[in-house]
Amino acid sequence: MGPRFWELHDLVLANQRRDDFTRPPPESPSPAVLRRHARQIGADLGLFDYVMATGNGPDVEQFKQARALGVKPRSLVIDGEVHSAFEPPRLLRAAIDRALARRSPPAR
């Protein structure tokens, strides 16, 4: 999330504040609530989804390269080929087989 992290942090805390000054119960906001907050502050939702799915901060250059290839959150990249995660399994298997064939040494 990069520079937007602290904005999201402040928004989450602001939404947990109580008017009667009682301490809110310790809770972790659900991913849906966090995503709604991220949208509210104008964060890059693709980047937000990536961070939430992987638990890692992104390599920004790698993320830009993926975007340039047309990779979307529901995309798979198999050896440089971009596929939809919703393609039939036989097509994904064919792409995996092609990738393995390119990497395997020739039979003797």
Shape: elongated
Distance between the termini: 50 Å
Largest sheet: 2 strands, antiparallel
Strand order in the sheet with the most strands = 1-2
Q: Summarize model confidence as the mean pLDDT.
A: 76
| Estimated helix fraction | 40-55%
**DSSP summary: helix tally:** 5
Calculate Rg over CA atoms: 20 Å
Q: Structural class, from helix and strand content?
A: mainly alpha
H-E order: HHHHEEH
Count of beta strands: 2
Residue stretches low in confidence (pLDDT < 50, at least 5 long) are: none
Write a structural description.
The chain contains 5 helices and 2 strands, in the order ααααββα. A hairpin with a 2-residue loop joins β1 and β2 (81-84). The protein has 2 domains: 1-69, no CATH class; 74-108, no CATH class. The longest helix is centred in the last third of the chain and has 15 residues, at 89-103. With 108 residues, the protein is mainly α.
